[in-house]
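User
Take a look at the entry that follows and flag anything odd:
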Amino acid sequence: MDMSSQAAWLREQLRGTLLAAAATPMTASGEVDLDLMTAYFRSLLADGADGLAVLAHTGRGPFLPPPVRSAVIERAVSLGVPVLVGVGGALDEAQPSGVTVTLSTARPDDLAAAQGTSPGSTERVVEEARVAAGLGAVGVLVFPSAEDRVALHDAVWRGAGLPMIAFDLYTLPCPPAVLEEIVRHPGVAGLKTALLSDAMGCQEAIRITREAGRLAITGEDRMFGPSLLWGAEAALVGLAAARVDVTRDVMRAFAGNDLREFERASALLDRLAAATFTAPMEGYVQRMLWLAAAEGRIPRSHAFDCYGPAMGEDERAREKAALAGV
């Protein structure tokens, strides 16, 4: 199918850019401070991110209730940069006992948004996309689904009219034949791969995406340099939730055809990724929050991931040791 003008516009907007897959800083009890979050977003942009991807995997979007989601989108869009919003994602993982996600500066209209649609899979994803469109997002990042993925993208496109970035995530990789259908949908501007350790799968996904005339976006924190060599033309990575400069330097060296600088910058990024994107893999969000706190982007009081595996001080100490000199 032909590419829509909206998707073609988004493809060109994002080509060559670095989008930070921002975390959602919160306290151990799940409180989100909007002003603190806005300052965190600003710090990522100041250090070299060209835009923001909020409520994605790093931002724990599938777990956050509508008023929190709306507030996060609104604050990100207010910064005047391209904002992609994660929509969908599995809700079958139970929220940790005793955690209630709240806004410390909630407004009546935020709370009213929570009274809208509830739970049903496709309807919920479409509604999330409609909200993102209404709040000024440039596009949506569609989480993978165990159901009909092509139908899901079509429903989002028809329901919200917002161009989409498809998402091939390590937790639910997409079969190549299905991926070919998705990237040829008129509302799809590109594909983000985040397969982490599947080099052949990443190469195949990039090939399929480029042959369809869509934008190949790397989310490969553990294969970042190679994914650029394989044809990725933009980046959307959780590694840029802190230490944005490390990812930015690799992209600049690659674009500038400086082989030695690309080699040096990639080696530094690989050391950072090895310390943060490691087993248990879902613990990377907590590790990136710890790193953001160590950099002074957020206070330690808001450096908690309420939705990942339990991570104690021993894990924090191992990360700190691994990051020495990075």
The two ends are 45 Å apart (CA to CA). The longest strand covers residues 188-194.
